[in-house]
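hi! just following up on the protien thing from before. the input was this:
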Amino acid sequence: MGEPVLLSVNNLSAGYGEAVILQQISFQMKAGETLALLGRNGTGKTSLIDTLAGATRQHQGEIILDGIALHKLPSYKRANAGIGWVPQERNIFKSLTVHENLTAVARLPAKSGAGVHWTPERVYQLFPRLAERKLNLGTQLSGGEQQMLAVGRALVTNPRLLLLDEPLEGLAPIIVEELLKAISRLTRVEGLSAIIVEQHPQAILAISDQAIVLDQGQVVHSSSAESLLQQSDVLAKLLGVSRSSF
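and the predicted 3d structure came back as:
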């Protein structure tokens, strides 16, 4: 038997106020899977992440996380149900130290026996740079270090599903490589389920199981990540990715 379904999104439409951005989105993820969420700018990727986290207005459909009807819960209760959200803005507490950022939000797993128990100490093992800067304020961190801290803050909430919205955006190549290794460890070794929005499809597809491409708020492609990675012509058509970037 395969892994059970962790996340089921059915006929989901959502947006901001009366504006409907997402239209009839449906997909499923099994426990332990990673989903690459791709699309050109403005196609609804961040809106979908925001909707899963409870930060948009949902017009129809349902979001089920391990049997829990997330669409009926406010955002703070979705975190309690197992959603770990790393938004583009990172949302760290810049007036607190690295260690205070982690301890302020740390909590036990939503389910006992739900795998690895993430603590600030385990985050320092994943990101040694943060261990070196544990007494530094958020304002004293580089952009890459702030992103690591944002991921760490999500991990210490012990989520069932990690939502990463463009985690590599604007970072130096050496930091991108470090973050990719960490994300790969989280998903491939630790078995944490994740949805990753990214503008660099090859990097994320290489560490993902599934891929979904959005266009104008709708799913226009769904396949295994490996299959999409091998179809350079499809990537070019859907995302404007040139062959020279492979």
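The chain is about 35% helix and 25% strand.
The domain at 5-43+57-201 is CATH 3.40.50.300 (Rossmann fold).
cheers
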